[in-house]
Every structure is written in structure tokens, then in C-alpha cells.
């Protein structure tokens, strides 16, 4: 009991010392200091725009995109391993791709071809095959194509059933035996949705499940080796899979404010934080000593017919560390100071979005960091085709700050 009393007394002593008016800078009761809220209006924003960057792989993505959306074409890379020792007869082959979104325009043709180089599912994009190697020819990463036009949609799966009377069975047999002959020749399959330009090519795609999904795609086939007297069945998901985007990246500023996951589109903001907008701050010394309790960039969604609302967005702000960096602004030119994200699962018009940039504004006002602007980007870049537009007028920063105690 005595120990409890001593602990309570010690805690009260610590609390009392914490609200000593000579030390307090955040406005506790009894300090005589009250936090103040101000709004930095849009007239203090000197520049804002969007810019693009190359699509990088989203780690452990559970989706594979195939087809075209907003003129961006997605192609799927697949690699199957643990193949049999040989294949003498191949009587039936089945490729099944479960999907979560079907925006196909009928009819469609699917092109399969042999990938020419080794690739890394975590690094491959339009230009890179692995972290250390580029594609020899980014526009032709595969060869020996064959087209499949017969497919079915079964229980939310895209299914190709290829029987012995289909000439495509020989293409697969030859390809499988090539891979079996040497592991180094097994670079997998490239899968492409052939666009039907009699329809609008802006939206014609599938969001397929990847091998990281609980419901996986799979390849199965019935075969015999030289020693088999009965049919044997191979059934496996891809050992590796990813998708790449055939994209043309603009290196210019994009007017308007847009966040997009594919191709990654980010927002840049440059704003002034004039001392005279902070009531009670009368000198640069006081300005640098004020405490920023909270600072939020306030945005409103714009009306758009291109919203894809199947997924939630997560945004994160970064402080730009160099003046007028080249576009796209590379990761060497911005840093993270804020440990918070904002997530939205609703994209209706004029929805208010508040992005916490408190550590960034504190670093600027204190003089610890130069004010070269901030960027805001999605934390799900490369994951899906989601995009969102924001209004360019009525930008503002809401700041709650506490005046410094200058009695010391």
C-alpha cells in the first residue's frame, strides 16, 4: 500500500512539473498559453501540378492486370516450374485465371508468346527485366506467338480449355519440352489481350488474381512420358507472375491535381508560410520557436467520369529537398517526415480530404528544413488502375500552433 501511495505522489509531482508555465509550449491548462488555429489561404500557394513516373512493382500484389485502361496497356508475365521430365503426348491443357473485375469487350483474342529473357517478378517493368538488367528490346520481350480465341468465363474465371484437336496443343507441347530441356530456357509466358479497335480501347481489361491471392491461377495438363502407361496430370499455380505496363511517361508538368496508381501520378505543392499570418508572432526568432500542434493540407475531390471506386486510396506527404528538381521528382529529392497516412474509400464529388503534414510544417517554420514544396503520392502505386482528381481552387492549409514562451 505504501508503494502505491509513493507511486501516486511521484506521478502527481511529474504531472505538476510538466505544466509549469515557464516550460510549457503546447498550451496545457494553467500555462497561460492557448493554441491558435489559422488558415493559410490558396493565395499563398505559388505552384501546384501533377507529374508522372514509371510504374514500379507493388510488393506482393494480389492482382494481375491484363488489357487496356485509359490508353495504358497491361501485359501479364507467367512462369511455371517443377515440370515433368519429358512430355511425349499432351492430350489436354487448361489455363484458368480467377478474376475480381471483368471489363472485357467481346470478342477478344489472347496472345501467348515465349519470353526471351530472365525476369524478376518484383522488379520487372516496361524497361527493366531484373534489378540489374534491362530488357534487350522493351517493345519485343517475347517471340513465337500463338493466339487463343476460344475461352469461357466460368465462376469468375477466364478459362482456356485446349484439347488434342486444337492446333495450339502442339505449340504448348513444343514450348513445354523446350523448358524441360534446360531450366535456363524457361523464361515463362507473356500473355497479351489483343485489342479490338472496333470498340473503344480505353477500357478493355481484366483484373486477374495473382499467385499471391488465396484463389490462384493455375496451369494443368494431361500427359505421358516415354515410360508412362496411363495419363498423368500436372496442376500448379505460377511460380512467378507479374504484369507490366506499356506506358509513355510525360516528363512535363500536368495541369490539374491527380493521383493515379498506374501510371503513378503524384501531386506537387509549393506554398508560402508568411510570418504575418501567425497572430502574436512578431519576429523571426518567435516564428522559429513556435510549436506546430497540427497542420493539414485540405483538398476536395473533383467531378470525374474516370473514377475507379473498387479500392481505397492511401496518401502520404513528402518534403521536397531541392529547388526546382527535374521531373519526375526522384526519391533522392524528397524525404519522409510525417508518419501518418490518410485513407479514403469513397470518391464522391467534393469530398474533403485532410492530409497531415504537421512534421513538415514544423520543420519549415523552425528553419530546420528549406521550403521547396511537398509532394503527395499514393502508397499503392503500381497496384491497380485507380485514380482520383482534386479541385485546383480553394486550396488551403489549416494550422494549429502555440506561441513560444519567451519568459525564460
Concise summary:
The chain has 408 residues and is mostly beta strands. The protein has helices spanning 2-18, 168-181, 284-289, 358-366, and strands at 36-40, 45-52, 63-69, 72-79, 89-103, 109-115, 142-148, 152-153, 157-163, 189-194, 203-209, 218-224, 232-236, 240-246, 257-260, 265-271, 291-300, 313-320, 334-335, 342-344, 352-356, 374-378, 387-390, 396-402.
Strand percentage lies at 35-45%
H/I helix tally: 4
Helix content: 10-25%
Largest sheet features: 12 strands, antiparallel
Q: Would you tell me the structural class of the helices and strands?
A: mainly beta
What's the overall geometry? Answer: elongated
What is the domain tally?
2
Detail the poorly predicted runs: 1-29
The tally of beta strands, per DSSP, is: 24
Average of the residue pLDDT scores: 86
End-to-end CA span? 40 Å
Index terms:
single chain; Jelly Rolls; 408 residues; 2 domains; 4 helices; 38% strand; mainly beta; six-stranded antiparallel sheet; disordered N terminus
Structure notes:
The protein is mostly beta strands. The protein folds into two domains: 25-53 and 252-402, Jelly Rolls (Sandwich), CATH 2.60.120; 63-246. It has four helices and 24 strands. Strands 3, 4, 5, 6, 7, 8, 9, 10, 11, 12, 13 and 14 form a twelve-stranded antiparallel sheet that branches. The longest helix has 17 residues, at 2-18. The radius of gyration is 29 Å and the shape is elongated. It starts with a helix and ends in a 6-residue tail after the last strand.
